[in-house]
Amino acid sequence: MSEPATAYLLERAWVDGAVHDDVLVGIEDGRFTRVEVGGPAEGVERLPGLTLPGLANDHSHAFHRALRGRTQRDKGTFWTWREQMYAVAEGLDPDRYVTLARAVFREMLAAGYTSVSEFHYLHHQPDGTPYAAPRAMGNALVLAAEEAGIRLTLLDTCYLSSGFGAPPEGVQVRYSDGTAQRWAERAGAGPAAIHSVRAVPRDQLQVFRGRDPLHVHLSEQPRENDECLAAYGVTPTRLLHDEGLLGPGTTVVHATHLTDDDVELLGATRTNVCVTPTTERDLADGIGPARRLHEAGCRVTIGSDSHAVVDPFEELRALEMDERLATRERGHWTAAELLDVGTRGRAIAVGAPADLVTIDTRSPRTAGTGGDENTAVFAATSADVVRVVCDGGVVFSKGDEDGIGRELDAAIAGLWS
Ligand SMILES: [Zn+2]
């Protein structure tokens, strides 16, 4: 069924790599049919503010949202955080997962993300037995995304071992299909992920060759590198390369602790790199070489990952700010480059999916900052988002926040009681 054509006059918009005034966009069947700077605009709804293409959340674990404000309370490490994350994972079943993920996806839309790559590994019942419908938990995420109105790429994730050569422990039995072959039988042919090189043994990695898209956590922790070197004599990046798993269809997530050789390999193979600065900050992971990876030839994207923060503007700003702290130099990324990172190269252009994110350029944060791409990247926060359109439909309007907050509250309270 086709949807009625709609049109907006955008007060200011990011089109063709620059900000333009009075951009008329026409939308039909979820795609832009018309994008005209200074086009005629009688009888067309005017959207004040600065409008961007939809922002892409390239790495998410929806249920981690339940940990915000809780795991930060005490000292700890990535590994103690992981214990708390597992405790929450234990309480989820398909129904509760729909409720939680729908609220989380709505929070993402409110922040300006119109698409999400969900790195999904919570497959089975608490004792490890598959559900009667073996993809029940993944289907819960699909339903939640449909109901929220966000575009979902469900990455069915293979997780077989808790560490190099170690079997799954505790709640990890919910993640494991036993072997990569059995994972493939359950997951089918769609988008895939390898949890990490510690979670899938080397002799089973060939199952993932040719998968596109394929995502994998990479070198988030020095410990993963040390253990990989001890087990296989190579870095995790080199291991993936040797197994034929790097390339433009692959996205490595984090890529924080890399050697020069790793950076070169990822760049030469045109592998995508998803960085998650607010999560890496929260977990004290370190600052990865995002700019060097970009210069080496990788497409860099962002993700909200653990959802300690859901704010694409903060992630983008962090790319530049973290680099400043690490190098004690300013000006590594331009705002235009960061918008390209945030949108994963998507544009407001004829034929593209009709996603629009409008930010208020007159808020206490953004007023007086020029109303251009620098406003978006160096001044705005997710609180400045006033309207979000995904596939041509309005999925968030300022004022919806109260309802989203109540949904999150209800969904998360149930998991901690
Ligand atoms: Zn992750």
Characterise this structure.
This protein has helices at residues 78-90, 94-111, 136-148, 180-187, 222-232, 236-242, 260-268, 277-282, 290-296, 312-327, 335-343, 373-378, 401-416; strands at residues 6-15, 18-28, 31-37, 45-53, 55-60, 113-120, 151-158, 192-194, 214-218, 250-254, 272-275, 300-302, 356-359, 385-390, 393-397. Helix content is 33%, strand content 23%. The protein has two domains: 6-53 and 348-402, Urease, subunit C, domain 1 (Roll), CATH 2.30.40.10; 55-343, Metal-dependent hydrolases (TIM Barrel, Alpha-Beta Barrel). An eight-stranded parallel sheet has the order 5-6-7-8-9-10-11-12. It has a seven-stranded mixed sheet with strand order 3-2-1-4-13-14-15, covered by helices on one side. Strand 10 (250-254), helix 7 and strand 11 (272-275) form a beta-alpha-beta unit. The protein is α/β, with parallel strands linked by helices. Residues 59, 61, 119, 217, 253, 305 line the site of zinc ion (ZN). Zinc ion (ZN) binds at residues 59, 61, 119, 217, 253, 305.
Distance between the termini: 43 Å
Number of strands: 15
Sequence of strands across the biggest β-sheet: 5-6-7-8-9-10-11-12
CATH superfamily of the largest domain: Metal-dependent hydrolases
As a whole number of angstroms, the C-alpha radius of gyration is 21 Å
Largest sheet: 8 strands, parallel
Structural domain tally: 2
Mean pLDDT over the full residue set: 95
Total number of helices: 13
Structural class: alpha/beta
